[in-house]
C-alpha cells in the first residue's frame, strides 16, 4: 500500500531547544517520503526495559531530504515520556511509526487560509503553510500560548505569513488573551476562505465557533489521548457527525486527527452523546 | 530443521500458535498495513455484540507501570455490520477468524451464537465472559462459575459442532480452576486466559480517576505473572483442555513462558499497540527459542514446566495456592 | 504552612501516614541503619507465627516487569523470639509497632492474639489473611469472607479493646468488598490492602518455574492499579472504615493516589528493597504534594477522588464492576 | 553507626572491557571509605522509568582514594540489568548502596592463604590479597573459568601471588579442568593454612570439601539471588549451621555473603533441610 505507515529505528541527528520546546531531527526515510502536512508519528519511549508501554504521538513538524529523509518533532516536556525524549542526544536511536493519521485536506483552488495554533499545536502548521502557498494560497497565522516562551514558531510565521498575530494569556508577547479573541478580526481583515487549527480541544471548539459564524470551512487537528496510533485500540475516539448525520465515536488516530471542525461535537467530547450510534440507552447497548 | 508449529484448538488445526488478542487487532485491516493477517495463527476479533455499541467515554486509557488500563467498553458496530463488512474481508485475506462475542445476558450470547451459526469463515467462537451480567447486578459472568457455565452451554448448543467454542476467563476470581472446570463441564472446547483484571488509576493532578469509566482492565507485561499462574493452574487441573494463553506477551520468551505453563496457543494484545509487527515477530522469536532448545514440535513444549523435577535441588516444585 | 499529616487507625493516632508493609522492613534494625524507625507512621512487622518457620526453599524471588514475585513463606523466629528480641528493640527506639500475625487455623491466629494481648508496645494487630487455611484444603482465608470473618472475630475477641485489629485483604477474589464487609462485620477496626496476588514466572532457560515454590506473591508498581481499585471499591462501600493502602507505592504521587482513592495511611513494601530511604522520602514527597494542592490536613484528601464530579465533562465518573 | 551502608548517586569515571568482563569505576566516597574486602554494593539498573525493580549486587573489586573515593565493579553481562550497566558511559550516574555484607575475616597472625576464584568471583580476591599481604600473609591464587577470556585477573594474580594456578574447562588457558581439580595440589605445595573462595555454589562446595580434607579453615563468599541486599526481604537465604549446631536459613546479604565453608550446607542449598529451625513438619510450621 502506497500510503501505509512503517516502523523505523532512526538515528537522532540533532537536538535543540526552541524556547520552552525541544526539537529532534531523526533519520526516517520511509516516513519522510510519505509525509503530508497533518501527519503524525508515534515514538517508543524509555528504552529497552522501559515501564512505559504506549508510544507517544507527535506531529511531524518538518521533513527534509537529507540522509534519505529526516523528520523533525517539536515537543514540550509533559510527563515521563517527553522527559526521556528531551534527554536524547545526537546519535541515539529512536523507534518511530508513521506517517499516521489523516492529513490536512488542501483547497483545490487558491484561497486565503488562516492557520491557528496553540502552543505545540503550531508545529503542525508550517508544512501546511508551505503546501498551501505552493498552491497559491495566502496564509495568515494566529499563534497563541499562555506565555511568550511557549509560543512556537513566531519567527517562521512572520516570515511565511501574510500577517501573523500572536496572543499570550499573560500578555508577555502579542495581544493579551487567547487565539479565539483575535481570530474574528484576522478572518475579517484577510477575508479568509478557510481556517486550519491545531491545539487543545477547548481552543478547537472556540475556533470552530468563530469559523462557523463566518460560515467558512474549518479543519481542526485534535489531540486525543492515544494508546496505539494505528487504529486498533479504540481509545482515541471523539464524537463526530458523519455525512449521514449520525454521530459516531470515531478514532482520532485514523479517521483523524484532522476533522472538519463543525462535525466534531466538542461539547460532548469526554462523553457518549445520547444520540451517538450505539449509545447506552439504545435498544441493546 | 525448524520446529513444527501447528497447534490445535480442539480438532481445528492452526498453522502456528500466535494469535491476536480480542479487542487489540482492530478489524484486521489496520494490522494488514504492517503484515498479512493470514500469517497469524488466527485473528481474534474484538468482542462482537448484538447491537452497535458506542463504548465508554474518554479518557479510555491510562498507562501504568508496565501496564495499560483500558475502558473501551466493547465499542463496535454490532453483529450485522460485522458480518457484512468485517468478516468477509478477513475471509478474503485467508485469515482464520476467531469471533469473540460479548453480551449482558445468557439470551444475548445465545442469540449471537445463533446468528454466527452456519456463517462461513468462522474458525472458532470465543466467549468473552468478562461482561457484566445485567441480570445479576452487573456481576461479570467470569467471576461466577455457574453463570459462566450457563453461557458456555447455551453458546455451545447454538454453535455447529465443528466450530470450537472457547471460554475466556478472568484472573480476578478466588479460584480460576473452579471457573475453568465449570466452563469445560458446560461444553467449552478450549479456554482462553487471561482477560484483564479490574484496575484503576487516579490522576493526582486532577485528583480524579484517570479513566472516565473509573475502573478499567489492566493489561500488558504487568499482568503476565497472573497469566502464567492461571495457565499453569488450569493446565495442571485440566491437562487435556487446549488453552490460549495471553497477558503481557511482548516477546517470544514471554510466549514460551505461557507455552511451558500449558498454553498451546498464545495471543498478543497490548504489545500490538507498541509494535504493529508484534505477532510475526513473537512467532519468529518463539520458533528460534524452540529450535535452540531442540524441540521438533511446539506440542512437546506445551506444559513442559509441569514435568516432575529432576534431581537438581534448585528446581524442585512444591505448589500451593498461596505463596506465603 | 505544612499540612497536618496525623492519621487515625480507629482511635489510635499516628503522627504520619507512611508505614512499612509487612514482611518488607525486616526486624526494623536493618532499616534503622538508614533512617529512624520512630519517624515512620508505624513499623509493621513481618507476619509473626506461633512457631519458628524456616520458610520456603530458594529461589524465593523473581523479577517481573515492574513487579517482584516472592515466596518467602513467612520465615521468622516465632512469636516468643519476636517478643523477646524484636519488639523490645522497636519499643526502645520509640517506634509504633503494628504486629502482623499469620496462622494456618483460626485457633492459631487466636493463640497469637492471646499471646500478644497485654504486651506493651503494640500499636495495632494486623491479621495477614493470605495464609492457607489448613482446615480448608489450603484455601487462603482472604479468599473466603466467612473464614476471614471468623479469624477476625476471634482475634478481635482476644485483643484488648484499645488495640485496633486490622484485617489485611488480597485482591485475587471475585468481590473484595464482600470480604471487606465480612471482616468489618467480624470486628475489624481497619483494613489493609492489598496483599500480593498469586503470580508465577517460568524461566525459559531451565524451563521450570523461577521460584522453588512455583507460585509467589506479586508486588511492586505492576500491582498498583489493583491496589487503587481495591481501596476505591472498599472505601466507596465502607466510607467510615480506615484503610491502609499498599501495593506498588514508590513515590509520594503513588501514596497520594491511594489516599485519594480512600486510604488514610499508606504502606511501602517492595520499594524498600530498591531504596532503603523510601519511607521518609515518600512522606516528604506526599507532604509537598498536599501542600502544592492547598491541603491543610491529610484527612481532607482521603477519598477525595470519590467526590461527585464537577461540571467538567472529562471527569465524569461512572463506575461499574467491569471495564468492558 | 560507623560501618553502616549509605546510598550514593555516583558519577561513572571510567568504563573498560577486561576480556569477557566490564569494569566500571564510580565516585562513591561514603562507600569507598568504609570498604573492607568481601563487601559488595547493590546498584539500581535501567534508569528512571525502568521496569526492573531490584538492585543488582556486585562485589567491590577495588577502591581508590581519587575524587574522595571511588569503587570499581567488574561484571559479566548476564541479563537485562548487566546489559544496561555495560552500556553506561563515563559521566553517567549510578545509584549505589553499600558497603554491604560481612567482609572476609582476616587471620590474626601471618599465615599462608590460598585464594580461589571462579569467573567474576575472582574480582573479590585482590583487595583481600592486599589486606592479607599487609598482615604478612603469603597468598597463592587459583583462578578458573570455562574459557580463557572469562578468567578474571590472571595478570594481577601473577603479580601479587606467590603462585598462581589457572584452570579452564576447555583448556584454553592453564590446566584443563576446574579449580577444585588443582586445589589440593596448591594447598599441599604451599602448605596453606587457610582458603578463601568466591564463585558459584557448586564450586564453593568443592573447595570446602577440599579444605575440610586438609583440615584447614575455609571462608566462602556465596552468591545467592538477592532482592534487597540489606537484610529486609529474606529472599537470599542459605542453610547454615550455627555455633549451637542448629541449622538456620540465614541471609546471604547480611549474615554473609562470607561464611565459614563447613558451616554452609551446600548439599541442601535450594531446599529447607528437614532439621532446619522451623522446617515444615516441625510442630507448627
Ligand atoms: C496526534 C497527536 C499529535 C501530537 N503532537 C504533539 C507535538 O507535536 N508536540 C507535543 O509536544 N505534543 C504533541 N502531542 C501530545 C503528546 O503526545 C503528549 O504530550 C505526550 O504523549 C505526553 O507524554 P508524556 O509521557 O510526557 O506524558 P504523560 O502524561 O506521562 O503520558 C501518559 C500517557 O498519556 C498519553 N498522553 C498524555 N498527554 C497526551 C496528549 N496530550 N495527547 C495524547 N496522548 C497523551 C501518553 O501518550 C501516555 O500514554 C500530540 C498528541 C497527539 C495525539
Ligand atoms: C553478593 C553478590 C556479589 C556479586 N558480585 C558480582 C560481581 O562482582 N560480578 C558479576 O558479574 N556478578 C556478580 N554478582 C551476580 C550479579 O548480581 C548478577 O549477575 C546480576 O544481578 C544479574 O543481573 P541481570 O539483570 O543482568 O540478570 P537477570 O538474570 O535478568 O536478573 C534477574 C534478577 O535475578 C537476580 N540475579 C540474577 N543472577 C543473580 C546472581 N548470580 N546473583 C544474585 N542475583 C542474581 C538479579 O539481581 C535480578 O533481580 C554478584 C551477586 C551477589 C549476590
Ligand atoms: C484496548 C483493549 C481492548 C480489549 N478488548 C477486549 C474485547 O473486546 N474482548 C475481550 O475478550 N478482551 C478484550 N481485551 C483483553 C485482551 O484480549 C487480553 O485478554 C488482555 O489485554 C491481556 O493481554 P495483553 O496483556 O497482551 O494485552 C482488550 C484489551 C485491551 C488492552
Ligand atoms: C518479600 C515480601 C514479603 C512479604 N511478607 C509479608 C508478610 O509476612 N505478611 C504480609 O501480610 N504481607 C507480606 N508481604 C506483602 C506486603 O506487605 C504488601 O502487601 C505487598 O508487597 C504490596 O505492597 P508493595 O507493592 O509495596 O510491596 C510481603 C511482600 C514481599 C515483597
Ligand atoms: S490510538 Fe488506538 S485506535 Fe486510535
Ligand atoms: S537480599 Fe533481601 S534479605 Fe538478603
From TrEMBL, chains A, D:
Source species, please?
Answer: Microbispora rosea
The signal peptide here is: none
Q: Where does [2Fe-2S] cluster bind?
A: 228, 233, 236, 253
Descriptive protein name: Dihydroorotate dehydrogenase electron transfer subunit
InterPro entries (alphabetical): Cyt_c3_hydrogenase_gsu, Dihydroorotate_DH_ele_sf, Dihydroorotate_DH_Fe-S-bd, FAD-bd_FR_type, FNR_nucleotide-bd, PyrK_electron_transfer, Riboflavin_synthase-like_b-brl
What's a GO biological-process term for it? pyrimidine nucleotide biosynthetic process
Q: What protein family is recorded?
A: Belongs to the PyrK family.
Q: What domain of life does the UniProt record list for this protein's source?
A: Bacteria
Q: Which cofactor does it need?
A: FAD; [2Fe-2S] cluster
Q: How is the cofactor bound?
A: Binds 1 FAD per subunit.
Where does the FAD-binding FR-type domain start and stop, copy by copy? 5-106
The Gene Ontology terms for molecular function here are: 2 iron, 2 sulfur cluster binding; flavin adenine dinucleotide binding; metal ion binding; oxidoreductase activity
Q: Where does FAD bind?
A: 81-82
TrEMBL record, chains B, C:
Q: Where does the record place the Dihydroorotate dehydrogenase catalytic domain?
A: 5-290
Per its UniProt record, what InterPro entries does this chain match?
Answer: Aldolase_TIM (IPR013785), DHO_dehydrogenase (IPR050074), DHOD_1B (IPR033888), Dihydroorotate_DH_1 (IPR024920), Dihydroorotate_DH_1_2 (IPR012135), Dihydroorotate_DH_cat (IPR005720), Dihydroorotate_DH_CS (IPR001295), Dihydroorotate_DH_I (IPR049622)
Q: In which pathway does it act?
A: Pyrimidine metabolism; UMP biosynthesis via de novo pathway
Which cell locations does it reside in? Cytoplasm
The region annotated as signal peptide is none
The source's superkingdom equals: Bacteria
Name the Gene3D superfamilies for this protein: Aldolase class I
For this protein, the Enzyme Commission number is: 1.3.-.-
Recorded catalytic reaction(s): these are: (S)-dihydroorotate + A = orotate + AH2
Database matches in PROSITE patterns:
DHODEHASE_2, PROKAR_LIPOPROTEIN
What is the protein's major site of localization? cytoplasm
Keywords in alphabetical order = Cytoplasm, Flavoprotein, FMN, Oxidoreductase, Pyrimidine biosynthesis
Q: What does this protein do?
A: Catalyzes the conversion of dihydroorotate to orotate.
Protein name per UniProt: Dihydroorotate dehydrogenase
Organism of origin = Microbispora rosea
Q: What is the lineage of its organism?
A: Bacteria, Bacillati, Actinomycetota, Actinomycetes, Streptosporangiales
Q: Which gene encodes it?
A: pyrD
Amino acid at each position: 500500500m502506497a500510503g501505509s505507515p512503517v516502523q523505523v529505528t532512526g538515528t537522532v541527528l540533532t537536538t535543540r531547544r526552541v524556547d520552552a520546546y525541544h526539537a529532534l531531527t531523526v533519520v526516517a526515510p520511509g516516513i519522510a517520503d510519505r509525509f503530508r502536512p497533518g501527519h503524525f508519528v508515534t515514538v517508543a519511549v524509555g528504552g529497552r526495559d522501559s515501564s512505559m508501554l504506549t508510544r507517544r504521538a507527535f506531529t511531524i513538524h518538518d521533513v527534509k531530504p537529507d540522509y534519505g529523509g529526516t523528520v523533525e518533532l517539536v515537543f514540550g516536556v509533559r510527563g515521563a515520556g517527553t522527559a526521556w525524549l528531551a534527554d536524547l542526544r545526537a546519535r541515539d536511536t529512536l523507534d518511530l511509526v508513521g506517517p499516521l493519521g489523516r492529513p490536512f485536506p488542501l483547497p483545490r483552488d487558491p484561497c486565503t487560509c488562516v492557520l491557528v495554533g496553540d502552543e505545540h499545536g503550531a508545529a503542525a502548521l508550517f508544512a501546511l503553510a508551505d503546501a498551501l502557498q505552493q498552491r497559491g494560497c495566502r496564509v495568515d497565522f494566529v499563534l497563541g500560548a499562555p506565555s511568550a516562551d511557549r509560543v512556537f514558531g513566531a519567527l517562521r510565521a512572520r516570515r511565511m505569513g501574510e500577517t501573523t498575530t500572536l496572543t499570550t494569556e499573560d500578555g508577555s508577547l502579542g495581544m493579551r488573551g487567547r487565539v479565539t479573541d483575535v481570530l474574528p478580526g484576522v478572518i475579517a481583515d484577510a477575508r479568509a476562505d478557510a481556517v486550519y487549527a491545531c491545539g487543545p480541544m477547548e481552543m478547537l471548539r472556540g475556533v470552530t465557533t468563530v469559523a462557523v459564524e463566518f460560515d467558512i470551512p474549518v479543519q481542526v487537528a485534535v489531540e486525543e489521548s492515544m494508546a496505539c496510533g494505528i487504529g486498533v485500540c479504540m481509545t482515541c475516539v471523539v464524537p463526530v457527525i458523519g455525512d449521514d448525520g449520525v454521530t459516531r465515536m470515531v478514532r482520532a488516530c485514523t479517521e483523524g486527527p484532522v476533522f472538519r471542525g463543525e462535525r466534531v461535537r466538542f461539547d460532548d467530547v469526554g462523553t457518549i452523546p445520547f444520540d451517538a450510534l450505539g449509545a447506552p440507552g439504545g435498544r441493546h447497548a | 530443521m525448524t520446529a513444527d508449529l501447528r497447534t490445535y484448538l480442539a480438532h481445528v488445526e492452526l498453522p502456528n500458535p500466535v494469535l491476536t488478542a480480542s479487542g487489540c487487532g482492530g478489524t484486521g485491516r489496520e494490522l494488514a498495513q504492517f503484515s498479512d493477517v493470514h500469517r497469524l495463527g488466527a485473528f481474534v476479533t474484538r468482542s462482537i455484540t448484538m447491537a452497535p455499541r458506542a463504548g465508554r467515554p474518554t479518557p479510555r486509557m491510562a498507562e501504568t507501570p508496565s501496564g495499560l488500563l483500558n475502558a473501551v467498553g466493547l465499542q463496535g458496530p454490532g453483529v450485522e455490520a460485522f458480518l457484512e463488512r468485517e468478516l468477509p474481508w478477513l475471509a478474503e485475506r485467508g485469515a482464520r477468524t476467531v469471533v469473540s462475542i460479548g453480551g449482558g445476558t445468557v439470551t444475548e450470547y445465545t442469540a449471537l451464537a445463533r446468528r454466527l451459526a452456519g456463517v462461513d469463515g468462522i474458525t472458532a467462537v470465543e466467549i468473552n465472559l468478562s461482561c457484566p451480567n445485567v441480570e445479576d447486578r452487573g456481576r461479570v459472568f467470569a467471576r461466577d462459575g455457574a453463570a459462566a457455565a450457563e453461557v458456555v452451554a447455551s453458546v455451545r448448543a447454538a454453535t455447529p459442532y465443528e466450530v470450537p467454542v472457547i471460554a475466556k476467563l478472568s484472573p480476578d476470581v478466588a479460584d480460576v480452576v473452579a471457573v475453568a472446570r465449570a466452563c469445560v463441564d458446560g461444553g467449552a472446547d478450549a479456554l482462553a486466559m487471561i482477560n484483564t483484571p479490574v484496575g484503576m488509576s487516579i490522576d493526582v493532578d486532577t485528583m480524579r480517576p484517570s479513566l472516565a469509566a473509573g475502573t478499567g482492565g489492566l493489561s500488558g507485561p504487568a499482568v503476565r505473572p497472573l497469566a502464567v499462574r492461571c495457565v499453569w493452574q488450569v493446565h495442571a487441573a485440566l491437562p487435556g483442555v487446549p488453552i490460549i494463553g495471553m497477558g503481557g506477551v511482548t516477546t517470544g520468551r514471554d510466549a514460551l513462558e505461557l507455552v511451558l505453563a500449558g498454553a498451546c496457543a498464545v495471543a498478543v494484545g497490548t504489545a500490538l499497540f507498541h509494535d504493529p509487527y508484534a505477532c510475526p515477530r513473537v512467532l519468529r522469536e518463539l520458533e528460534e527459542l524452540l529450535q535452540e532448545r531442540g524441540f521438533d514440535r511446539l506440542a512437546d513444549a506445551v506444559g513442559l514446566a509441569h514435568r516432575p523435577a529432576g534431581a537438581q535441588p534448585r528446581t524442585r516444585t512444591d505448589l500451593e495456592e498461596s505463596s506465603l
